[in-house]
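Aim 2 progress update. The chain analyzed this quarter is reproduced below.
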Amino acid sequence: MNIPAPAPETLGFGVTKRTTHLADGRELIYFDDPGSELGEDRGVDARALDPRPATATMRRDVLTGDWISVAAARQNRAFLPPAELDPLAPQTPTNPSEIPSRYDVAVFENRSPSFGPALREAYGDAPAADDPPRGLADLDAPGLGRTRTSVGRCEVVCFSPEHAGSFGTQTPTRARTVIEAWADRTAALSALPGIEQVFPFENRGEAIGVTLAHPHGQIYSYPYLTPRTQRLLAAIDREGPELFARILTFEQDSERVLLRGEHWTAFVPFAARWPLEVHLMPHRHVADLAGTTADERDELAPLYLRLLRGIDALYDSPTPYIAAWHQAPVHVGRDAVRLRLELTSPRRAADKLKFLAGSEAAMGAWIGDVPPETAAERLREAISTVPEVTL
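Predicted structure tokens:
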């Protein structure tokens, strides 16, 4: 598929953005480190690929109001392939992977997405959305058997061309490039029609369900407000629009603080659910990563790396986690919902995991295994063994 590539674009921190397309029309974006040794030319994806799958369908759970995306194409995705067949590594003659060139950071549309491809009018070669949502009021309407097309977009964010690792194993410069990519994609995806919320995240470890060892994360762009965000908006209505400013002050005055910089504070929250749970919050109100300043991104890269490396220093083996960047919805609540990272891990001891059984899974009633203050003390001790990280 021959789609003209736009000219390279220079982003913050000296990161260069280069946009191209894969053989089936999916978008591929390279984010080159400042001073990258990679050349301007990038390989062409010459694979013979099947057509993109039909956009998934959402079904509404009338008991909760939640929308469930049924994406059968995900059953065919790669599962723990050997390093020589890593689908996120640069292509070789023996590995027809998703990325045709050597790269620093690469972002591309997921081949088996839970949401999307995007609406046809937003991106010309995407399959048609037969029955897209008609706004938030439509999604909230009552009725049994309600369905809509799962419009949206799912992207894969490759932190490195190496086969193994995670965000925490990257250099400060590479971490800063990834943050620039997150911010760029947040802005671009928020501008797509039909998108209500943009969610960057990293799953790390087989205990979390990771199916690829390659250091990577994802970005989901939802056509609705997620259940977690709807509950948050209700909490803001109950507690007041300055809720996040109050939370930050409350936590900064506690014994649960782990790291504190000029622009960010990391802490174990007062009512932590998981054995390991850390929130990382900016000191000023900012709705999403796209709204952060260069200074905030510059501090975030080394601070986040030290936090992740401290978590890994707790035990003799890497800790599984979900690192979830909660951002304000695209169209509502932006003056009240503050950007923050929520990192959670089921690991409650070196050889024990917390499983969500009857009370948590069936009733949503959580029982904490570790007092948050105890978890914070252990994490501070582990972080203190990690060398300072500088950009």
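The radius of gyration is 21 Å. The first strand starts at residue 9 and ends at 10. These observations will guide the mutagenesis experiments scheduled for the next reporting period.
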